[in-house]
Amino acid sequence: xxxxxxxxxxxxxxxxPLEERPxxxxxxxxxxxxxxxxxxxxxxxxxxxxxVESLRHSGIIRRxxxxxxxxxxxxISRLCAGKVPSVATGAADDSALxxxxxxxxxxxxxxxxxxxxxxxxxxxxxxxxxxxxICRIVDGLxxxxxxxxxxxxxxxxxxxINTVMGKASAGRNAPMRTVGNGAKEPLSGALAASDRERxxxxxxxxxxxxxxxxxxxxxxxxxxxxxxxKRMRRFGAILxxxxxxxxxxxxxxxxxxxxxxxxLAKNPxxxxxxxxxxxxxxxxxxxxxMHAQSxxxxxxxxxxxxxxxxxxxxxxxxxxxxLKKTSFRFFE
Length: 332
What we know:
By secondary structure, the protein is an alpha+beta fold. It has helices at 3-12, 22-33, 45-57, 95-105, 131-144, 193-202, 212-216, 220-228, 260-265, 295-308, and strands at residues 61-68, 76-83, 110-116, 122-128, 148-153, 157-161, 178-179, 232-239, 248-254, 270-275, 286-292, 314-325.
């Protein structure tokens, strides 16, 4: 990755310019800062565009688009933990796991699906408009695949949601805290058909052009309003963490007091931090996603985080296999 690409990546993860010519705005920003490793060099709109395109084609950037708050739009999200026979659990092969993965890939409501190093070896996220719809999806998977013993977990508190990685994350570690069981939150007003269409499109990936919003047929004013109304958390680049250098991650679950979440939210190596209810055989209530560039670094980050909480009991669920990772498209 070039110095220019790295600097652009640090900027556009957090806030891709909501302007008709965003790459010109980025070029002006770089030139004003004298950054990207060469203060004497002037970058053009085309050079910045080419750098972003290189990051997209290499797979480092998964998409550039809107990251919306599902609850603000009237949806609910649940993390599901379940069991599927695999080689790691004593099965002869991974055919049951592969069949389960293929079934999940056909379900739009499931956005993330991972195999983790635990008795509960599959963990997936479901987004839907009702609790009943989530139950129907889970029950259908149990009936059609070898998935069983599923636990559907709400987030009783959210301490941090931050998928910005690298240098750009340095200023984004202030803790957030929301309380609730994931019930629908009222919108600031009924969404018009044009709002729903804009949001549906913005959940995708911008066109590969110098004027992406015009070619997307999406109003930048409308996108700015989504941010103002907090329907959208941010508009930016979403990375494939492995390609971006953060190839090692784990979900670390602590048996800790709820106020420990505020401590973990300040940790720059943690992207997500939630409180969830414990269940039989799994007493842990504080969930943190940790990312690192090596196994040794990850182990060190986990131990440091545990020490900051007073060394409570915890379990490390390493990410063994990524079965699915997509962005939910609202109002599809």
